[in-house]
């Protein structure tokens, strides 16, 4: 026969640590929510302002449009030849990205997996390359491009973009490939795989997170650059997207509705690229921090 256990009338003592933990979590999430709103607000402002007229923009700069002008996007696309500019930016960005990934992957493979003399000096050379102010090279590069007859060509942008993207790309990829266990490399050599097989079949597929990080960083730099395109490109048919957007502003007035609509269109590919690679990018940014 079972006997009932009496229930104590006294409540258990309250856990003070649990209350403090909830308060800290509440403060943390509140701060993160406020930070997220502040971060996303400029994009929200861009979206609503892209549907305004100039008069509406001046009258209600931070409010919703009085009349939603969806035709701003079509007018911006046609009036400034955004289609051609999109194509030029895509060619330049994709070309520089392909060169950056190929050269950086090969260089990082050698630096991460081989020991040779002056290895530290080579790494220091690329680290110093990250410290060079990009725009301080405009005049020397313009003279060099003119002597090589590369002005007003895609190569006038592809080559500088690749050169300035390589230091960061090599730094990220080298850190990631260094964390790959040596046992995989030794097993591949035992199975008869050569250096090129090791690179293409093992190292390259394993470095996808780092490659995604490099892809986003390099693509954004080439896609959004204005100064190099302004100096090296004069032909209208070769102008990139930032130059086409700048055409909406002249010495007398700026059509903010069309300008912001064009900016909204130019931002969409970068958002899509980030959403596509965001998970791999997070893995690539933390690669090499913890080795196991």
Automatic annotation (TrEMBL):
| Coiled-coil residue windows | none
Its main localization is membrane
Where, per UniProt, does this protein localize? Cell membrane
Instruction: Tell me where the transmembrane regions lie.
Output: 27-48, 90-111, 123-143, 155-177, 198-223, 256-277
- Determine the domain of life of the protein's source: Bacteria
Q: Pfam families under this entry? A: BPD_transp_1 (PF00528)
Q: How does this chain sit within the bilayer?
A: Multi-pass membrane protein
What are its GO cellular component terms? plasma membrane
Keyword Cell membrane assigned: yes
**Single biological process term from Gene Ontology:** transmembrane transport
PROSITE patterns assigned:
ABC_TM1 (PS50928)
Alphabetized, the UniProt keywords read: Cell membrane, Membrane, Transmembrane, Transmembrane helix, Transport
Which residue range or ranges hold the ABC transmembrane type-1 domain?
Answer: 86-277
Keyword GTP-binding annotated: no
In the UniProt record, the signal sequence range is none
Record family assignment: Belongs to the binding-protein-dependent transport system permease family.
Q: What is this protein called?
A: Binding--dependent transport system inner membrane component family protein
Q: What is the lineage of its organism?
A: Bacteria, Bacillati, Bacillota, Bacilli, Bacillales
